[in-house]
Amino acid sequence: MRMLAVFEKSERIRHIGHLDIQRSVQRGLRRSGLPVAYSNGFNPHILISFASALSTGASGKREIMDVTMAEPVTAETFVRAMNSAMPPALKVLEARALDDRHPAMMSLVRAARYDLAIDGDDAFQRIRDAIPAAMAKEDLPAMRKTKTTLKECNIRPLIHGIEAKDGHLLAVLTLNEKESCKPGMLLEALCREAGMEKVPRMTVVRLGLLGEDEQGRLVPLETV
Amino acid sequence: MNYLDQFERALEKVQKAPRYTGGEMNTEIKPWDSCPLHFGFCFPDTYEVGMSHLGLKILYGLINREDWSLCERFFMPWTDMISQMKENGIPLLSMESRRPLNEFDVVGFTLQYEMSYSNILAMLEMGGIPLENNERGEDDPIVVAGGPCAFNPEPLAPFIDAFMIGDGEDVMTELNQVILERKRKGMTRRECLLRLAALEGVYVPDLYDVAYNDDGTVKNVTPNCPEAPAVISKRIVPDLNQTYYPEEIPVPYTEVVFDRIMLEIMRGCTRGCRFCQAGMLYRPVRERSLEKLIELSEKLQKATGYEEISLSSLSSGDYSCLPELIRELMKRMKDKRVSISLPSLRIDSVLKESLEETQQVRKTSLTFAPEAGTQRMRDVINKGVTEQDLLEKVRDAFQGGWSSVKLYFMDGLPTETNEDLDGIGDLARKVVAEYFAVPKDRRAKGLRVTVSASTFVPKPFTPFQWDAQNTIPEIIEKQNYLKKVLNIKGVTFNWHEPYLSFLEACFARGDRRLGKVLRKAYEKGCILDGWNECFRFETWMEAFRDCGLDPAFYANRVRARDEILPWDHIDSGITKAFLWREKEKSNRAETTKDCRLGCNGCGLQKRKGVCSFANAGGV
């Protein structure tokens, strides 16, 4: 069986990178005493996958992992055992048993919901005021950075919605195996739209990952 | 904006933020007001180095275990963070509750390495604590230090209020109790220091005056008050099974230098290698029992989830029940998928059997430390290892499927000649030949022999404490010679520039006047000297000149037998007579037997019941 677990990467450890989070969760699983399954081979590792890597610098309210168990356990047991084995900064919130044939969570992610805190009232207001015009456009250019390249792309189709309130932008942005709009790309595009020279500081919280229900509506990934 | 917000912003601008953010497993924050005594544990190097250090984990657990004391960690920030802190008025903050260093009652530094001394000054200053003990007021913390370098405390005497000499476990609690009493009863700083000086193994440098001869050598070190003992004896934990060992240790999120469970199987070493300060300072040998180690390993594995356990000691191969221990650990850890590694494997004590057992989990590279290239040189340093031993073990390893071997040597040893350096080349060549002697279909591919040579640094409390270190030009010449000798296919040669070793030699055997040099160098910008990219040798030399002191006086001078050494008032348990005897034997290339084969009369036989190999009659 597999266990889908929702966990929080708290603000305190937002600078920890994805690989380190992975290793820490694996050690947590080892501490928990839960019957997790290991890969075969010379260097056996725990069979675990994460729905989406969270960037260094961002915290996550509802991140998702998918663990293969060697023996069945209940969701309650899983959550209880994990929370006694994890540091407070990395908490398991809920879990759900999955059938082995359930598709990989990674393949089901469609979008993510973000809370982006913008530094400075003036900067926030200018960004907020630029949103309607930006959203009315068909083409909203932003720079996509990979390890080696810097490419211009259109992020407008990747923005599902933005709301601006009290210094925060609440945004739903496309995130799937093929393409994604990172919060930084959105901020940069909006700043350009607002005619701002300097991109303000922003704190990123990923509120949750979204998948699709049968009608094609975006719903929390853990319910898919 | 307050400094905590500034700190959050700084984190976004530095290279490795995780080394400053804390929140690791098993570092749960004790509420500040829940304990009257607050201990700031300072590791004067980066997080990655400090979190690999066993002593930190022992004392961290020990202090936090008491309901009246809490311990939080401080590390030396990297240069990018230091700039951010200076620009934005951020003090040095603890990893746990992010409080400035000067809010703690006790600030404790661990002294592992002389080249971390400038970091101590940097951490004190960033922590808002006056650098020198005579500048500190009633509200400032008591600054203490311990660890191997505390055995020659003199260069740090101006900056540290009290040194703990020897094993830290017992004295730590006693010291904290005195400081707690100070806090409760409102003792003055002076009263508190006098009380500390009365504890066994505690040295309060301010209570001693140092006089010098005209030639610059020490004339005497004398107590300036009746409370201070003339000689400070090191603390010895008599039984490791009775002493505290943590059952939960912090697990960093990021990879640190030693990212695994370190199981201290014994303390001390009976080999008596003459260059090895640890081998002298950590005497006598004390073993943890097999049962205790099994119990600890299971608890630690459960509490950390680590994938690897390493057996830690100066000479793990000498542990009396090593095969049983390894077999038992392997049996119990196999299902938990934990591998067992033996780091400081001595080549004469490796059991073929345990080699075979190790590979059942993973084949990492094997490390051997012959230390010197010829038998004569090995006899001089009393490294009781023969070429035959080494080659046999290497053969076993190659036949067992290893293809990567590391060999450690020293250059600049007393009486060393080019012939000894040639010996290093010969040994490397023979190791290569052992590999090719294994039939091709039975050996692992990709031979890698790494030869590392470090520059010898004479240390206090060793038989070489009277010897001169080779001068920098001499070392460079030897290294160049070695480069030629080790130009062998399949062999990589690693060496370090000698400048750092030269400075290390100055401070290792320095006197109290070097405190001025340290401060001067720090004020000129020297920090993180142990890191190549930060080390500024010229600036250090300037600091010596400004203070009117000659570094060669400390590094390159032969001391006379009757010279008062700056650390003579510290009693390591080893007598000066024994060390001198060892020095004379070394001059004759004469070896001294392992203490397990009979007492050599190092001095510890005089301390009742601490050494299991002691012969009270002595030698």
Q: What is the global morphology of chain A?
A: elongated
> How is the quaternary structure best described?
heterodimer
The domain tally of chain A reads 2
As a percent range, the share of helical residues of chain B equals 25-40%
Radius of gyration of chain A: 19 Å
Task: Label the structural class of chain B.
Answer: alpha/beta
Number of E-type strands of chain B: 19
Give a count of the beta strands of chain A, DSSP E runs of length 2 or more: 11
Radius of gyration of chain B: 24 Å
In terms of per-residue confidence, which ranges of chain B show pLDDT below 50 for 5 or more consecutive residues? 346-350
Distance between the termini of chain A: 17 Å
Helix residue percentage of chain A = 10-25%
Largest sheet of chain A: 9 strands, mixed
Structure description:
The complex is a heterodimer of chains A (224) and B (619). Chain A has 224 residues and is an alpha+beta fold. Chain A has 2 domains: 2-107, 2-Layer Sandwich (Alpha-Beta Plaits), CATH 3.30.70; 109-223. In chain A, 25% of the residues lie in helices and 34% in strands. Chain A contains 5 helices and 11 strands, in the order E-H-E-E-H-E-H-E-H-E-E-E-E-H-E-E. Chain A has helices spanning 18-32, 75-83, 105-108, 121-136, 183-193; strands spanning 2-9, 48-50, 59-68, 90-98, 111-118, 141-145, 150-154, 159-165, 168-174, 202-212, 218-220. In chain A, the strands form 2 sheets. In chain A, strands 1, 2, 3, 4, 5, 8, 9, 10 and 11 form a 9-stranded mixed beta sheet that branches. A two-stranded antiparallel ribbon of chain A has the order 6-7. The model of chain A has no long low-confidence stretch (mean pLDDT 95). Chain B has helices at 3-13, 18-21, 47-50, 54-65, 79-88, 117-126, 168-185, 189-197, 277-281, 290-304, 322-333, 352-358, 375-380, 387-399, 418-437, 472-485, 498-508, 514-523, 537-546, 551-555, 576-587; strands at residues 37-43, 69-75, 106-110, 142-146, 162-164, 202-203, 208-212, 218-223, 232-233, 261-264, 266-267, 286-287, 308-312, 339-341, 366-371, 404-411, 448-455, 491-495, 570-571. Chain B has a 6-stranded mixed beta sheet, covered by helices on one side. In chain B, strands 15-16-17-18 form a 4-stranded parallel beta sheet. A 3-stranded parallel beta sheet of chain B has the order 10-13-14, covered by helices on one side. The relative contact order of chain B is 0.10. Residues 346-350 of chain B have low confidence and may be disordered. Chain A binds chain B through residues 10, 12-13, 15-17, 20-21, 23-24, 26-31, 33, 38, 43-44, 56-57, 85-89, 201, and chain B through 9, 11-12, 17-18, 21-28, 251, 253-255, 302-307, 336-337, 362.
